[in-house]
UniProtKB/TrEMBL annotation:
<keyword id="KW-0443">Lipid metabolism</keyword>
<dbReference type="InterPro" id="IPR002642">
    <property type="entry name" value="LysoPLipase_cat_dom"/>
</dbReference>
<protein>
    <recommendedName>
        <fullName>Lysophospholipase</fullName>
        <ecNumber>3.1.1.5</ecNumber>
    </recommendedName>
</protein>
<comment type="similarity">
    <text>Belongs to the lysophospholipase family.</text>
</comment>
<keyword id="KW-0378">Hydrolase</keyword>
<dbReference type="InterPro" id="IPR016035">
    <property type="entry name" value="Acyl_Trfase/lysoPLipase"/>
</dbReference>
<feature type="domain" description="PLA2c">
    <location>
        <begin position="113"/>
        <end position="680"/>
    </location>
</feature>
<dbReference type="GO" id="GO:0005829">
    <property type="term" value="C:cytosol"/>
</dbReference>
<dbReference type="GO" id="GO:0004623">
    <property type="term" value="F:phospholipase A2 activity"/>
</dbReference>
<keyword id="KW-0442">Lipid degradation</keyword>
<dbReference type="Pfam" id="PF01735">
    <property type="entry name" value="PLA2_B"/>
</dbReference>
<feature type="region of interest" description="Disordered">
    <location>
        <begin position="348"/>
        <end position="373"/>
    </location>
</feature>
<dbReference type="GO" id="GO:0046475">
    <property type="term" value="P:glycerophospholipid catabolic process"/>
</dbReference>
<feature type="region of interest" description="Disordered">
    <location>
        <begin position="519"/>
        <end position="540"/>
    </location>
</feature>
<dbReference type="GO" id="GO:0004622">
    <property type="term" value="F:phosphatidylcholine lysophospholipase activity"/>
</dbReference>
């Protein structure tokens, strides 16, 4: 058993597992199964939106080393030469796998790169914003005002003698929806337009769901805030016409410098440092993130800085208010139970009287009297929202947060029990984009929209979907693909001692807490103990589950407004870019009302109260003019609402709709948007 466990945690086994997964994906994507993979790939590199070099890569050329890619078509060699080439490649792969553990051991002592190795972490409890975020908001408002860069003045084209006081600066948040590669490219284009017109410099927060998280991650890491560099990168990625979990993607990452370390290293570290097991979504996380964040420049490589999400707070100048603060949205299912030291009989009685956790409408504010609920309000809440910022990872539903660099550590009763380097951002990013781990019915809906019609896979999915509908299994989770595990930072003990020990780390912590508890009993007076007791009564109990699963928040709501709308942030204007697959059905707008109902806000469409958009004078063809006139009133819809505090909020809803500049392409119904949406 020990030998088997060691093998399952070895880099070679994890790489073989990843290779098998990529082979399966490549098979499903191949012609005629889904008619997506081509025999040849054209790899085109861009700079400033223009083609720098275009390479025609056949199957033989794709087998060459990515670090030494030739620009000419190789001649066919003999069988012995091909054999030597295959043996040489796999020998190099074995060398790379053998170096993974050595590089991980180096990370354990590299305090310069990972200063958190000297830090202990603690759970922050409360609804207030992090003190770093409060400081950022003030600096950002100052920068936007006339006392700083005067961004708002330029954007609104105010008279020269009019000044914008920093206290009058509205708090604007930009959010991108989920939608895979389509929204990844589309949200990048939206950011580019926002930068071009000066809107980006007036935004305080930017948030994403699923595919938008990919765009934000790339913008703040490999693009280094240069939107043109990011566009060039995505144009090159789109020209490869490769699935991010295909053999082609795996080979590109593995053949780059230290690519195997960034691909397999996070998995080995996670498997060896905790009781948490690895699943398919962990492999999905590292593969998709490394493939997308791999620079396509000559001698492109991955770096450790790319996968340190907490470090962009200083590297990007966010701490000085130079860039909007990024937030990534995720959800988890509401836990089935919480830690309650009751007898079995007491629990049985409570079960008869109280609703199940799935019927609880909201985790926070359960003890408060709720006002009248609008007709749009949903009767139950199955998910809890989490936000991932460079500062913290936590839930506004729970009012508990941990430092981002400490996510992945083992916590007990609010304190970390070990010190380790920051978990690779690829794992956290993968959880925010883990749409395949959602409910089976939702996965089927997404597949029906994206899979090309009249293919074997499409027919099989339709048959399976009809079976689910006939059996009324729409609400059944039923997905064998589960979200990745992580140690639950909100796991803890109601009392310092008396809990079962699960690992040696738990044992060490319990001994330390017991010692501190005994010292406190002798040194503290009655007032201190009364204050502690009062504080403990006002906080929810620690959770009984030692693991937690974060998932794509698109399965709850495909826009990140829930994490942006925290009352403590006080956002005045929400700009929502939506590239969902169901925009044309009206369900996307309904989700806005669901969000507003969750915050007791009644939305009213006030689009007609604002000036009508100007027509594009550059359009000449009748088809282009027809497309523009059809969607003119839908490109930007404005909704107004009022919080219970009296604050007015506006939501500007911008959907990815057909445009007169490219009248023959409809992004709302296109089955394969990878290349077309980039041109769009």
């Amino acid at each position: 058993m020990v030998i088997l466990t060691s093998v399952r945690k070895s880099p070679a086994y994890l790489y073989a597992k990843t290779y098998c997964l990529c082979s399966l994906v490549s098979l499903v994507q191949a012609t005629p199964v889904s008619s997506r993979v081509r025999v040849t790939h054209t790899r085109t590199r861009f700079r400033n939106g223009r083609v720098v070099v275009s390479l025609l890569a056949t199957q033989e050329e794709s087998d060459t080393n990515f670090r030494h890619l030739s620009t000419t078509q190789p001649a066919k060699g003999s069988l012995s030469q091909k054999t030597r080439g295959i043996v040489g490649r796999w020998y190099q792969r074995a060398v790379d796998l053998a170096s993974v553990k050595t590089l991980l051991q180096r990370d354990e002592t590299d305090v310069a790169t990972y200063p958190e190795l000297q830090w202990d972490a603690k759970v922050r409890q409360g609804s207030s914003l992090h003190h770093g975020e409060n400081k950022f908001v003030e600096l950002r408002k100052l920068r936007i005002s006339s006392q700083g860069e005067d961004s708002l003045h330029r954007f609104l084209d105010l008279p020269p003698d009019e000044k914008v006081d920093y206290r009058d600066v509205p708090l604007i948040a930009l959010g991108g929806s989920g939608g895979g590669y389509k929204v990844m490219y589309g949200f990048t284009g939206f950011i580019s337009a926002a930068k071009k017109h000066g809107l980006w410099d007036c935004i305080t927060w930017t948030a994403g769901v699923s595919g938008s998280c990919w765009a934000l991650a790339a913008y703040y890491t490999i693009a280094r805030h240069d939107i043109q560099r990011l566009i060039d990168h995505y144009l090159t990625v789109a020209s490869e016409l490769a699935h991010p979990m295909s053999i082609h993607a795996l080979n590109m990452v593995a053949r780059s410098k230290r690519g195997v370390y960034f691909l397999i290293g996070p998995l080995v570290s996670k498997a060896q440092k905790s009781i948490i097991g690895l699943g398919i979504m962990d492999l999905y996380s590292t593969l998709t993130a490394t493939y997308q964040l791999l620079s396509r420049e000559p001698k492109g490589r991955l770096s450790r800085a790319t996968f340190q999400w907490s470090k962009i707070w200083h590297r990007s100048g966010i701490d000085k208010g130079l860039e909007p603060m990024p937030l990534l949205a995720a959800v988890r299912r509401v836990p089935k139970y919480s830690y309650e030291p009751k007898t079995i009989l007491a629990k049985a009685k409570d079960a008869k009287k109280e609703p199940t956790p799935q019927q609880i409408d909201s985790v926070e504010g359960n003890d408060q009297k709720k006002p009248a609920v609008s007709a749009n309000r949903r009767s139950k809440k199955l998910f809890q929202y989490f936000e991932i910022s460079p500062l913290e990872v936590g839930s506004p539903d729970l009012n508990r947060y941990v430092p981002t660099w400490a996510w992945g550590r083992t916590f007990i009763s609010g304190h970390s029990v070990d010190r380790r380097p920051e978990q690779s951002f690829s794992l956290l990013l993968g959880q925010c984009t883990s749409a395949p781990a959602g409910p089976l019915a939702e996965c089927i809906k997404a597949l029906l929209v994206t899979i090309p019609k009249n293919t074997i896979v499409a027919r099989l999915v339709i048959i399976f979907n009809n079976l689910l509908q006939s059996k009324h299994f729409e609400g059944f989770w039923g997905n064998p693909i589960r979200a990745g595990h992580d140690p639950n930072p909100f796991y803890g003990l109601e009392r310092p001692v008396g809990m079962r020990e699960h690992t040696s780390e738990h044992s060490m912590y319990i001994s330390r807490v017991a010692h501190q508890h005994q010292r406190g009993m002798h040194s503290s007076d009655k007032s201190v103990s009364d204050h502690a007791a009062l504080q403990s009564q006002s906080l929810p109990p620690w959770e009984a589950q030692g693991r937690t699963r974060l998932m794509d928040s698109g399965m709850a709501n495909n826009l990140p407004n829930h994490i942006l709308a925290r009352p403590e942030r006080g956002v005045d204007v929400f700009i929502s870019f939506d590239a969902s697959s169901d925009i044309h059905t009206g369900a996307a707008v309904q989700r806005l009302h669901h969000f507003a109902a969750d915050f007791d806000i009644e939305l009213r469409d006030v689009t007609r109260e604002f000036h009508k958009p100007q027509h594009n004078t550059a359009l000449t063809s009748s088809l282009a003019l027809e497309v523009e006139s059809r969607y003119m009133d839908h490109y930007a819809r404005v909704f107004h609402g009022k919080r219970q505090s009296g604050q007015d909020v506006y939501i500007i809803y911008c959907a990815l709709l057909p445009n007169g500049l490219n009248p023959t392409y409809n992004p709302t119904v296109s089955p394969a948007p990878t290349h077309a949406i980039t041109n769009y």
